C-alpha cells in the first residue's frame, strides 16, 4: 500500500496536481523537447515527465518508454516526490525500494535512475526522470543540468497552450474519463477526440474572419509499427504550434487542425514536416503523403464536408506512381460531391513534390 508521511499533505499535493488539469491530456511538443534534450545532453536512453496521481504514475512526455502510465507503488517517481532534491539510484536492482517495479524487473529493466521533483504551489506533483539499463551516476555538472531542465518543466506545467476547441473538448470530460479520447500508444488525440475538437473549431471558424486549416498525412506502407508512429508524431508535433490539434485518424493517418490558418499557410507547415521527417528518419524515411484544405473565412463548412476535402487531396497525393514525400493542396470552400453528382470534387490547385532521393 502507498504510504505518505501525512494524509493531509497527500491530499494537498493531489489537489495541486489536479488543479493543473493536465492528467490524460494529449502529448505536447513543449514537453517532448525537454525530454529529448535530457536524453541527448545527459546521454541516457530514457527520460520522462512523470506526474504522480493517487495510485499511478502518468507520463506527460517520454523518450524511450512506450507506456503512458504505470503503477505508483514502488516507482521511481513516487520516491522522487518524497525528496527535497534530486534522487539518484545507481542500481535499482539492488535497491529494495524499486527492484520489484515492472520498469525494473520487467520490460525496460531500468537500473540507473535520476529524478528531480517537479513542484507546483510548493507541492511535488511529479518528477523529471532519467533512466538507463546500466548502473551509473551523474556528475555535478549533469545533476545541475537535470535541475535546470526540471525548472523548465515546472514553468510549462502552469501554462495553458491549448486552442479553444481543445480546451472545450477537455472541459467536457472529467480527467478520469479522457482516456477514451487519446490514442493509448502515442498519447495523441484519437479519432473520437479529434472529431470533438473539429466540431468545436468549425464553430469558431464560421465566425466573421475565422478560418480552419486541415492537414491529413498518411504513412506508407500502411499499418506502420507503433515505433514509427511515435517517431513521426514527435516530428509533426515539433513543427506545429502548441495550439494546433494533432492526432491519429486511423492506424496510418494523422490529422492536424490549424485554427486561424488557411490552406496556404498550412502548406508551408507541411513542407516543414517533410523536411523534419527527412532529417531524422534515417536513410530510408517512410513515404509521407499529405492532403491540405481549409474553410473559407467566415463561412461555415460542415465537419464531414471539410474532411472529405482533405481526404480527396490526400487520395490525389497517394496516386499510383507518386514517389517520395508529397503534398497536395485542395481548393477550399464548397463541400465535396462524388463524381456524377452536381458539383464534382474540387480540382486540385497545386502540388508540391519532394522526391525520396532529393
Write the layout of secondary structure elements.
Blueprint: H1 7-19, H2 29-42, E1 46-52, E2 56-63, E3 69-71, H3 76-80, E4 87-89, H4 102-105, E5 112-120, E6 123-132, H5 140-157, H6 164-171, H7 191-205, E7 212-220, H8 226-239, E8 245-250, E9 253-259, H9 263-280, E10 287-294, H10 303-317, E11 325-330, E12 348-354
Textual characterization of the structure:
- The chain is of the alpha+beta class.
- The protein has two domains: 7-157, GAF domain (Beta-Lactamase, 2-Layer Sandwich), CATH 3.30.450.40; 164-354, Reverse transcriptase/Diguanylate cyclase domain (Alpha-Beta Plaits), CATH 3.30.70.270.
- 35% of the residues lie in helices and 23% in strands.
- The chain contains ten helices and twelve strands.
- The protein has helices spanning 7-19, 29-42, 76-80, 102-105, 140-157, 164-171, 191-205, 226-239, 263-280, 303-317; strands spanning 46-52, 56-63, 69-71, 87-89, 112-120, 123-132, 212-220, 245-250, 253-259, 287-294, 325-330, 348-354.
- Strands 3-2-1-6-5-4 form a six-stranded antiparallel β-sheet. A six-stranded mixed β-sheet has the order 8-9-7-10-11-12, with helices on both faces.
- Strand 2 and strand 3 (69-71) form a beta hairpin.
- The longest helix is centred in the middle third of the chain and has 18 residues, at 140-157.
- The protein is globular, with a radius of gyration of 22 Å.
- The N and C termini lie far apart (58 Å).
Amino acid at each position: 500500500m502507498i504510504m505518505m508521511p501525512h494524509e493531509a499533505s497527500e491530499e494537498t499535493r493531489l489537489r495541486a496536481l489536479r488543479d493543473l488539469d493536465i492528467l490524460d491530456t494529449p502529448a505536447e511538443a513543449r514537453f517532448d523537447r525537454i525530454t529529448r534534450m535530457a536524453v541527448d545532453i545527459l546521454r541516457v536512453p530514457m527520460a520522462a515527465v512523470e506526474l504522480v496521481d493517487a495510485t499511478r504514475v502518468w507520463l506527460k512526455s517520454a523518450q524511450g518508454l512506450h507506456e503512458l502510465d504505470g503503477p505508483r507503488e514502488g516507482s521511481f517517481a513516487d520516491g522522487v516526490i518524497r525528496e527535497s532534491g534530486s534522487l539518484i539510484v545507481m542500481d535499482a536492482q539492488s535497491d529494495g525500494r524499486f527492484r520489484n517495479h515492472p520498469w525494473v524487473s520487467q520490460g525496460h529493466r531500468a537500473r540507473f535512475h535520476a529524478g528531480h521533483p517537479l513542484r507546483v504551489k510548493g507541492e511535488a506533483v511529479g518528477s523529471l526522470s532519467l533512466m538507463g539499463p546500466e548502473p551509473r551516476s551523474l556528475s555535478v555538472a549533469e545533476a545541475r543540468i537535470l535541475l535546470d531542465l526540471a525548472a523548465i518543466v515546472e514553468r510549462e506545467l502552469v501554462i495553458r497552450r491549448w486552442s479553444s476547441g481543445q480546451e472545450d473538448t477537455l472541459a467536457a470530460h472529467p480527467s478520469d474519463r479522457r482516456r477514451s479520447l487519446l490514442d493509448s500508444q502515442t498519447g495523441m488525440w484519437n479519432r473520437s477526440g479529434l472529431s470533438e475538437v473539429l466540431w468545436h473549431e468549425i464553430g469558431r471558424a464560421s465566425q466573421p474572419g475565422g478560418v480552419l486549416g486541415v492537414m491529413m498525412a498518411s504513412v506508407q506502407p500502411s499499418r506502420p509499427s507503433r515505433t514509427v508512429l511515435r517517431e513521426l508524431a514527435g516530428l509533426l508535433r515539433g513543427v506545429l504550434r502548441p495550439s494546433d490539434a494533432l492526432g491519429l485518424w486511423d492506424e496510418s493517418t494523422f490529422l492536424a487542425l490549424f485554427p486561424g490558418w488557411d490552406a496556404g499557410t498550412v502548406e508551408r507547415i507541411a513542407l516543414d514536416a517533410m523536411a523534419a521527417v527527412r532529417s531524422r528518419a534515417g536513410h530510408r524515411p517512410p513515404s509521407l503523403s499529405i492532403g491540405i484544405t481549409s474553410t473559407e473565412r467566415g463561412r461555415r463548412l460542415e465537419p464531414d464536408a471539410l474532411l472529405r476535402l482533405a481526404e480527396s487531396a490526400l487520395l490525389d497525393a497517394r496516386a499510383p506512381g507518386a514517389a517520395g514525400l508529397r503534398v497536395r493542396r485542395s481548393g477550399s470552400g464548397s463541400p465535396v460531391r462524388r463524381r456524377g453528382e452536381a458539383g464534382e470534387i474540387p480540382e486540385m490547385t497545386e502540388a508540391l513534390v519532394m522526391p525520396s532521393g532529393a
